[in-house]
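By way of example, we now present a protein record of this kind:
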Amino acid sequence: MNDDFFGPAIPGLFLIEDLVDEAAQLSLITEIEETSLAPFRFQQWTGMRETASYGLHYDFTASTLSEAEAFRPWLDKLARMVEAKCELPGRSIVHALLTRYPVGAAIGWHRDRAIFGEVFGISLGTEAVLRLRRRQPAGFSRYSLPLRPGSLYRLSGEARNQWEHSIAPLQQLRRSITLRTLA
């Protein structure tokens, strides 16, 4: 985890380096590449990244949550591993989002929808930077967390609810798996 002697840099922000090794990353990347991904839609905009949802699907145009295809066996195994590593109750991760980011893709500043609880992200293939910011009277407090390939970040508590996050534009093709619990 990213705890130092004084605790996490932002309460509720944790990092597990090397959750999955290089061989496991290649296997996960292959699974993502063999999945039918669709351009990410947010209201009337279409993003550069491509995604597929499992377990549940959030529609950003209608602001609705619906059932999606069940977790595939490899994805279910990964979700249960994250639950065990993070000491969560079994079967608490109910949503998975597979994402493929081409060069130049980014994720703008946001907080995940309130219907979701904790957020976990597994970075695959290339390094990325998770940026966080919180509004203050005189501007923003900011923090950047480098995400090495194979690492897992966790947003809970203050980091999840009081900070926005984004992913800086990418210099290389990247894939990720985002896992969520319900609030």
